[in-house]
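Reminder to self: C-alpha cells first, then the designed residues, so the page reads top to bottom the way the pipeline ran.
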C-alpha cells in the first residue's frame, strides 16, 4: 500500500532494501511519527524523517485513515 503525495510515493511501511524495517502513524496533532524495528542506517533514518516532515506539512489538516491498522500504527497514534 502506498501514499501518493505531490507526485511522489511514500511507502506506508518504512522500507529499505526491499524489507520492512518499521512503520509510521499520524498523531492527533498531525505529526507523522515513525518507528524503526531495525537500524536502517543514518542516511536512511534521515531520509525517512525528512519525508515524514514533508508529508506532515503536505497533508496539513487532512486525515488519512488506514483500513487495516497495524500494531505499530496504533501505538504511534496514541
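Designed residues (78 positions):
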Amino acid at each position: 500500500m502506498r501514499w501518493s503525495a505531490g507526485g511522489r510515493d511514500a511507502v506506508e511501511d518504512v522500507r529499505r532494501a526491499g524489507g520492512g524495517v518499521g512503520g509510521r502513524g499520524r498523531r492527533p496533532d498531525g505529526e507523522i511519527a515513525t518507528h524503526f524495528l531495525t537500524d536502517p542506517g543514518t542516511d536512511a533514518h534521515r531520509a525517512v524523517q525528512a519525508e515524514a516532515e514533508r508529508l506532515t506539512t503536505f497533508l496539513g489538516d487532512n486525515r488519512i485513515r488506514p483500513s487495516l491498522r497495524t500494531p505499530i500504527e496504533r501505538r504511534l497514534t496514541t
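The chain has a mean pLDDT of 77.
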